[in-house]
Automatic annotation (TrEMBL):
<dbReference type="InterPro" id="IPR002731">
    <property type="entry name" value="ATPase_BadF"/>
</dbReference>
<feature type="domain" description="ATPase BadF/BadG/BcrA/BcrD type">
    <location>
        <begin position="9"/>
        <end position="286"/>
    </location>
</feature>
<dbReference type="InterPro" id="IPR043129">
    <property type="entry name" value="ATPase_NBD"/>
</dbReference>
<dbReference type="InterPro" id="IPR052519">
    <property type="entry name" value="Euk-type_GlcNAc_Kinase"/>
</dbReference>
<protein>
    <recommendedName>
        <fullName>ATPase BadF/BadG/BcrA/BcrD type domain-containing protein</fullName>
    </recommendedName>
</protein>
<dbReference type="Pfam" id="PF01869">
    <property type="entry name" value="BcrAD_BadFG"/>
</dbReference>
Length: 314
């Protein structure tokens, strides 16, 4: 029997990765480019990003027949999103030279979870620019909590942390909070500015994005390590918000204290030691049988595994 060829795409807000693999794991092509979230760059922009990747993949491999194309796309949160993203993908594939026999299109976190656990129970919480959690009972039920975007929620995320840092600086500037705080020095250093007026100009720049505010969160670990009280409070609150996200997800899946893998991913959980430590403490206090594990592979690898589980169900 001829070996199946898998095309997998991990499409995020900041970067998009496409890979073509054999069923046995041979890597024929892999490339990463800019983000493909249509909510950020529009439908035509997303089509352009995906079309260019597909074109490069085809001309690099000349593998016309694709048994399964798995698209794991950020920003797919509603039925309308699903319709729009499906339209984007269909247009992109039609413009390519590939012949795709089967296709799955899923939210990126949903796909990553299924790549991690297959047909077994488990959960995945991601805190990067935004925050979201999915869980499955292994019998077809999948639940979701969070992921509503920075205008609605995203508590405990990089954006949320960045916004809290900025809010702290402006409240201290107004005399509403006691200062000083090392956060100001670290923010000014990161942005290469020297005044609050310059910070205002940066924040309200016409080309501002929520990812820019999320990037401010990267200064928090250093401020925490220096003992800054405001930074420590933000870190502890972020951990608690992520705990609430995890707790709600476990309740939705009707978790009952059995051994259960809970995977974590995203820059906040990987690069903020205090947040990760406090999050684990809170989870273990409430759910002592949970097994917490940080994801170690690149997101595209979980999309590939998701595709392989689909081709060869356990």
């Amino acid at each position: 029997m001829k070996e199946s060829i898998i095309l997998a795409v991990d499409g995020g807000a900041t970067k998009t990765t496409l890979t073509i693999r054999s069923e046995k794991g041979e890597n024929f092509f892999e490339q990463t480019t800019t983000g493909s979230n249509y909510q950020t760059i529009g439908e035509n922009g997303a089509i352009q990003v995906l079309s260019e990747l597909l074109s490069k993949a085809y001309h690099s491999t000349n593998l016309k027949q694709i048994h399964l194309a798995a698209f794991a796309i950020a920003g797919m949160d509603t039925e309308l999103d699903f319709k729009i993203i499906n339209r984007i993908i269909q247009h992109s594939i039609e413009k390519s030279s590939f012949n795709v026999a089967n296709m799955i299109v899923e939210n990126d976190v949903h796909a990553a979870l299924l790549g991690l656990v297959g047909n077994h129970p488990g959960a995945l919480l991601i805190s990067g620019t935004g925050s979201i959690a999915f869980a499955t009972n292994g019998n077809g039920k999948i639940v979701r909590t969070g992921g509503w975007g920075h205008r609605a929620s995203d508590e405990g995320s990089g954006y949320w942390i960045g916004q809290k840092i900025l809010n702290t600086l402006f409240r201290i500037e107004d005399g509403l909070l006691a200062g000083p705080t090392i956060l100001q020095h670290l923010v000014f250093e990161k942005l290469q500015i020297t005044t609050m007026e310059e910070l205002m100009a940066w924040l309200y720049h016409p080309h501002y994005t929520n990812a820019q505010t999320a990037s401010i969160s990267s200064i928090l670990p250093k401020a925490v390590s220096l003992g800054d009280e405001h930074a420590i409070t933000i870190a502890q609150n972020a951990a608690y918000e992520l705990y609430l996200l995890a707790k709600a997800t476990l309740c939705k899946i009707h978790y009952e204290n059995e051994t259960f893998p809970f995977y974590l991913n995203g820059g906040v959980l990987k690069h903020h030691p205090m947040i990760l430590k406090r999050f684990k403490q809170l989870i273990y206090q409430s759910f002592p049988s949970i097994s917490i594990e940080l994801c170690t592979e690149e997101p595209i690898e979980y999309v590939v595994k998701r595709a392989l589980h689909y081709v060869n169900p356990e």
